[in-house]
């Protein structure tokens, strides 16, 4: 909506950033916390940078509470926009004390919206004021960065994955301070994250992004499907929280309570280079879906010509049956058998959607070199395992050690044979269905995904 409305944040940005296309239109409340959620590479940070004026898109529009920051004829540079920007890294001035870092932005403001002493009390900084940033923990540095942003008298606070660089214990330390900010201040906050567990703790409104576009926007409690931290646990009587899987994309193990995970629910097909595990997994998944099983995730098939030579690859979102474009051209008649950036983003959304829908089985084609190195769909695999949903993937022999490090050694290893895979699922699903039938009717899950198919 290209109208400046009092009490609203109105923004529209359309164009290309290198090879990435952004096409976003937003009308958000200029109060409370609006979270922007989506997989890595979906455009969340690009939106934040456009709102801040760090990225200029021709023809863009941005207005906050009726004040136009950008339209077709004007563009207010970042230093003229009343924003506080908190990045992933605190970026404090190392030669200044905590006190002087906090006052750096405030000293040019005649009458601050929030007083220095209030910020210090709100963020628990009193004992840190005379310290050097070098003597602060990661969580303490980020609290100082938030305080500095608040003291700049912003009309909008932008927080771009402020906890992404922190480990689990440090996140748990700083989240209560963010909740206190939400409860105390009327300042609107745009909070960028790919961790729904964070978002659910203090966000009011949610924007869901996929591949440079907004695919959903509304009050947090109304927007579905999203994976909620307090969703029903698959084991029935575990605490009402989502198991954190720690530092995303840099994870070497899953710091979760192993006793909460049924090892039979995690299965890895161990395969060799000569095995066509893609075709096997796709065929098994297609059979399960057609038989009425509630499964989601991603499988892929290698495409071959009449001579048996590989000419490309296709991937399928198991919940929607939609083909995911994940091929990378290498030259005439050749394709790389690898997820490119756009395909990886689509695949991540497909898995996230399956977790949110609480399907009975999540299939993720592989845990291979990308995942072993901390990328690919590693985070989505961790999310599915931590949610307690049965997970089926494939692991090449050379990545078995990395897989065991990642899972902490839990799970079942399957032979690369259709009978072994179907036997595992028949046994596991039978036990799950018996356990579900034994529950009181009030605890039975809602029927979801009654009609989904492959291809």
Structure description:
The structure is a single chain. By secondary structure, this protein is of the alpha/beta class. The chain has 2 domains: 8-219, P-loop containing nucleotide triphosphate hydrolases (Rossmann fold), CATH 3.40.50; 262-443, Rossmann fold (3-Layer(aba) Sandwich), CATH 3.40.50. It contains 12 helices and 19 strands. The protein has helices at residues 44-52, 98-106, 116-122, 138-150, 168-184, 196-202, 277-290, 341-356, 369-372, 378-386, 400-407, 418-438; strands at 8-17, 20-29, 33-37, 61-64, 67-70, 83-86, 156-160, 189-193, 205-210, 213-219, 266-271, 295-304, 310-317, 323-324, 328-331, 334-336, 361-364, 391-396, 412-414. The chain has a 7-stranded mixed beta sheet, with helices on both faces. The protein has a 6-stranded mixed beta sheet with strand order 6-7-8-3-9-10, sandwiched between helices. A hairpin with a 2-residue loop joins β15 (328-331) and β16. α2 runs parallel beside α4, α4 (138-150) packs parallel to α5 and α8 (341-356) packs parallel to α10. The longest helix is centred in the last third of the chain and has 21 residues, at 418-438. It is globular and about 65 Å long. The protein starts with 7 loop residues before the first strand and ends in a 17-residue tail after the last helix. 42% of the residues are buried. Mean pLDDT is 78; it is low at 224-260, 330-337 and 442-455.
Characteristic terms for this protein:
455 residues; alpha/beta; Rossmann fold; 2 domains; 7-stranded mixed sheet; 19 strands; globular
